[in-house]
Amino acid sequence: AGTIGLLIVGVFMILVYRISGLAAAWALVIFAFLDLIFLNAFDITLTLPGIAGVVLTIGMAVDANVIIYARMREELTAGRGIHGAIQAGFHKAFSAIFDGNITTLIAAAVLYALGNGSIRGFAVTLAIGVILSMFSALVVSRWLSYAFYGVGAKSEKLYGTIKPRKPFNFVGKRRLVFILSAILVLSAPAGLAVYQANSGKALNFSLDFIGGTASTVDFGEDMSLTDLDHEVQPVVAEVTGDNNIQFQKVSGSNQVIIKTRELDLQERQTLTDTLKEHFSQVDTASVTAENISATMSSEMRQNAVLAVVIAVILMLIYIWIRFRDLRFATSAMLALLHDVIVFLRFYAWFRFSVGNTFIAVRLTILGYSINATIVIFDRIREHLKTAGQKKDLAELVNESITQTFTRSINTSLTTFIMVFVLYLMGVSSIREFALPLMVGIVCGAFSSVCITGPLWYMMTAGGRKRQAEGGR
């Protein structure tokens, strides 16, 4: 899935950015090889949270290249030569890439310090990937770009330019966006309350959190994990009424441990009879069942939540320091809060299993969202330096978001492709990880493009108005 995803992303980059896209595609291939080499060198166990970290860093590597090549096109449109456009593109994109990656490294450091084994694995793969993605975008892509230029790729048609685009009125549409966001946000506690009242469980917690029943079954043949997922899982789910099922093969035998929600005696017998009915070689006499406890203690869960909170706070402090404006940090924090609640809404309403991947997926989405937000804020900051108080603030924000809109769409699309291929080719556990991630990618792109800029405008416009009234 990773190979196919990278190939699709590479072709997409070439079609959109031409010779620059070819450089980006090679840089991504080199990044992927380096990432695998480092994961192997440090002997890192690749769990589902670890895969989440790898997917996020691939998305960030694509994002960095998109920012650079979009900047190059802007320079070409402004009349610069190819060599000057390449130089200016890397120079002007550096601050957005640097700030976005540093915020993610801050989150990875906190997670490693406070997280448990699986969360630490996510933090390590994320940190390695972030460092390598910066190297890939700022060094490898630069070398390749100059190399292509040096061997004769000096025609503007090979790079492309940007057609002038009228700024979309994002600020003017903010009320409609805020109403939609409020509906999404308020539906989260509503869903939690409904399921709490009906089933006693606001969220569908996995076996990692609540424990369950482990049934050991001898199928009389060696069944692969893929066979178990496709053939046995639907049968077990029919009995338990719950898709939260885990399989574990017993080495050197045909036995399989089936972990489900806690079953009473009648349900255990029903499960045995049903398995015998569908799989004739099942030895019912040898079937055993026992209750199992949760693998994640309350302390581990609290540390994971604490790590997320501290990581977000430190990221926002960094934004405040780098942008020298508390309003940037505040609007970013509100957008992240929006993403967290909407993400929780998805788990509440669609009853997706909340397990050890839940925290990793949530952090992946937050890292992805803050990275996209920084790109927009970086453009607003740039326009403020050149235009200052002279330009209408709403027009400045609309221009900044419009100019980075293509980058937001292309980055979201390429990352979405990677995760979508994982969803198509993966087994149920992978799908339960990939589907929320796809929802989060869309949600993060929406909040970055439609919420953060207008929020910053409202805070800043109010401050300017008060200053003007004070001056009078």
**Which runs of at least 5 residues are low in confidence (pLDDT < 50)?**
none
Span between termini: 63 Å
Average of the residue pLDDT scores? 84
**Count of discrete alpha- or pi-helical segments spanning 4 or more residues:** 14
Q: What overall form do the CA principal axes indicate?
A: globular
Q: What is the strand content?
A: 5-15%
- DSSP helix fraction: over 70%
Structural class call reads mainly alpha
Number of strands: 6
Query: Sheet with the most strands?
Result: 4 strands, antiparallel
Strand order of the largest sheet: 3-4-2-5
Taking Cα atoms only, what radius of gyration do you get, to the nearest Å?
25 Å
Strand and helix order = HHHHHHEHEHEEHEHHEHHH
